[in-house]
């Protein structure tokens, strides 16, 4: 019993497009077609498109051949639907019907076998044929079609397959090829890395790979700090046995700013922010062959003199390799003093587990404007590297401002002890 038939018409592929040229049939008579799956490819003066089947069934007849230009609305194929389509035998592509009685068995019934739908035929040389729309999408998205798995009829690659492949490729991290090892040249010296240097390298790499660094700087007038140190350094040297430097002043300013902005004294922990109650201040100590960051614990409980003693003790024992392991861990914030070597701007790397590092630069006398007049002032840049997951620019600027204002508020009479 014959099934119902649906006559497929050429769709109008645009408001002002009234005809299209059939570039390729993706199925042939006898093949099963699935509603919304592409049946053929059509070229127009505006687009290259795949035309989907309007119904599911068996393609019985092709009325417009490849290369024909057909008006929109004209019939191009016949699809058989219903129970008859499900049970119908396969018909050879555009082959003439055999003479009556020929190829028939007993009772005159035609001998045929139902066969599965064939995949889209390959091009000569084994290459797949792709629709113009797919080719255009691949060109625009720079996709190698040979790497795309097709989900269309017969395993054909559709435009959506190309777009999905491009989206996944863009989301996937691009592996950077490892650089070729550098071979030493004639006269080069090969120095093996010490264990300390390897650990520093690993720590700094982890920091840059996991922490989104950001950076700000402000300039501080150090006139009051310089005057205070000059007034106290002789008595301090006599009482303590070592020199009073500018570092404990900057440490005290940092502690004051951390109290005012506790979010800077915190650790980013994936889904939460751990704001530390105690301020354990790490201090960078540069040695000839390594860099150590011993920690002044409960630094917020110490005076300027107390901070100076703690730093002197840690630095002395660091140079003598007498530090204990727990004195190099547990810091909640770090202060760096690269300015002692004359640097003016530093972009320091944050210690993992901390939200920032403040670097004090060299104190340099330079001309500045003072109430409309030019004067010479001892000026210093404060450079702040911060974890952008923890602090935004506004918070970082407020923290820096608090440090600068504390330093500029120091006078000759400010207590050291």
Walk me through the structure.
The chain is an alpha+beta fold. It folds into three domains: 1-93, OB fold (Dihydrolipoamide Acetyltransferase, E2P), CATH 2.40.50; 130-168, E3-binding domain (Dihydrolipoamide Transferase), CATH 4.10.320; 201-408, Chloramphenicol acetyltransferase-like domain (Chloramphenicol Acetyltransferase, 2-Layer Sandwich). It is 26% helix and 23% strand. The protein has eight helices and 19 strands. The strands form five sheets. Strands 9, 12, 15, 16, 17, 18 and 19 form a seven-stranded mixed beta sheet that branches. A four-stranded antiparallel beta sheet has the order 1-8-6-3. Strands 5-4-2-7 form a four-stranded antiparallel beta sheet, with helices on one face. Strand 18 (364-370) and strand 19 form a beta hairpin. Helix 2 (132-141) runs parallel beside helix 3 (159-171).
């Amino acid at each position: 019993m014959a099934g119902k038939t649906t006559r497929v018409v050429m769709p109008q592929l645009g408001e002002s497009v009234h005809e299209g040229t059939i570039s390729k049939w993706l199925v042939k008579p006898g093949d099963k077609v699935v509603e919304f799956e592409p049946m053929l490819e059509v070229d127009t003066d505006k687009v290259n498109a795949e035309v989907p089947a309007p119904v599911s069934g068996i393609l019985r007849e092709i009325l417009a051949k490849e290369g024909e230009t057909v008006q929109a609305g004209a019939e191009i194929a016949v699809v058989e639907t219903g129970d008859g389509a499900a049970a119908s035998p396969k018909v050879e592509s555009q082959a003439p019907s055999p003479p009556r009685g020929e190829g028939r068995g007993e009772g005159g019934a035609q001998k045929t076998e139902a066969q599965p739908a064939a995949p889209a035929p390959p091009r000569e040389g084994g290459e797949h044929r792709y629709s113009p729309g797919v080719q255009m999408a691949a060109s625009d998205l720079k996709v190698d079609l040979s790497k795309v798995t097709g989900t269309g009829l017969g395993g054909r690659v559709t435009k959506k397959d190309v777009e999905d492949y491009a989206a996944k490729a863009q989301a996937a991290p691009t592996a950077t090829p490892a650089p070729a090892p550098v071979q030493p040249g004639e006269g080069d010296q090969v120095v093996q890395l010490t264990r300390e240097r390897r650990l520093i390298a690993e720590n700094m790499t982890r920091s840059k790979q996991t922490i989104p660094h950001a950076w700000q700087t402000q300039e501080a007038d150090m006139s009051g700090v310089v005057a205070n140190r000059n007034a106290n350094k002789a008595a301090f040297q006599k009482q303590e046995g070592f020199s009073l430097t500018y570092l404990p002043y900057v440490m005290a300013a940092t502690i004051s700013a951390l109290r005012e902005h506790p979010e800077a004294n915190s650790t980013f922990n994936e889904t939460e922010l751990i704001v530390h109650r105690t301020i354990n201040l790490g201090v960078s100590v540069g040695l000839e062959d390594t860099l150590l960051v011993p920690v002044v614990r409960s630094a917020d409980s110490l005076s300027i003199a107390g901070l100076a003693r703690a730093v002197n003790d840690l630095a002395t024992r660091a140079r003598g390799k007498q530090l204990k392991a727990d004195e190099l861990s547990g810091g909640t914030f770090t202060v760096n003093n690269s300015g002692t070597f004359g640097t003016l701007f530093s972009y320091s790397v944050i210690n993992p587990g901390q939200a920032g590092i403040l670097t004090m630069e060299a104190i340099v006398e330079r001309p500045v404007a003072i109430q409309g007049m030019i004067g010479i002032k001892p000026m210093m840049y404060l450079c702040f590297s911060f974890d952008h997951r923890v602090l935004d620019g506004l918070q970082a600027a407020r923290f820096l401002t608090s440090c600068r204002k504390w330093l500029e508020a120091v006078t000759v009479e400010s207590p050291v002890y």
